[in-house]
TrEMBL record:
It holds the Pfam family APS_kinase. PANTHER family: BIFUNCTIONAL 3'-PHOSPHOADENOSINE 5'-PHOSPHOSULFATE SYNTHASE, PAPS SYNTHETASE, ISOFORM D. Its EC number is 2.7.1.25. This is Adenylyl-sulfate kinase. GO terms for cellular component: cytosol. Belongs to the APS kinase family. It catalyses: adenosine 5'-phosphosulfate + ATP = 3'-phosphoadenylyl sulfate + ADP + H(+). Catalyzes the synthesis of activated sulfate. It comes from Daucus carota subsp. sativus (Carrot). InterPro entries: APS, APS_kinase_dom, P-loop_NTPase.
Amino acid sequence: MMMSATGSSNIFWHECPVGKVDRQKLLNQQGCVVWITGLSGSGKSTLACSLDRELHSKGKLSYILDGDNVRHGLNKNLGFKPEDRTENIRRVGEVAKLFADAGLICIASLISPYRDDRDACRAMLQDPNFVFMNMPLEVCEGRDPKGLYKLARAGKIKGFTGIDDPYEPPLNCEIEIKQKDGVCPAPSEMAVQVVSYLDQKGFLQA
């Protein structure tokens, strides 16, 4: 029996007879996490939804953990201070780990700006697959779908990633998506790229 990671002597991990391999056989896929990181406006949510749709069309079960959506419930008590951002990523990482253990392809779409936080998630997850939306700040700010860059430039939002809070680009990621000849790839093209990677790695079969 494994003792709790908290160090408590009266909490133990309880093993069940139906395990991850059994669930994967049922779903005919392998549970894993696709973690999409990048600046606000870089296309993370667009890719996540397109990827989810592409997987669904292939009969694969996936679920999106969106950075904004989780702050409506699971992480609604967290702000945007560095320590809150770290806890936000930790919690999502733990939930993503559970989804992967359930046999699902979990798509986590978050800015996740700090390298240490992403590395902690990578160490936590059994099958992490990081996708870096490597889009220039000027492109993301030009899109500004939520009007947040404008507010940050006006000083109405403090600690906004890319403006007055850093985004630390990944040093190691499985997939990097960027402009080609100054043109951003279409959502379907990005999704096919990720699905092809997952297929090559064997995640789309049990």
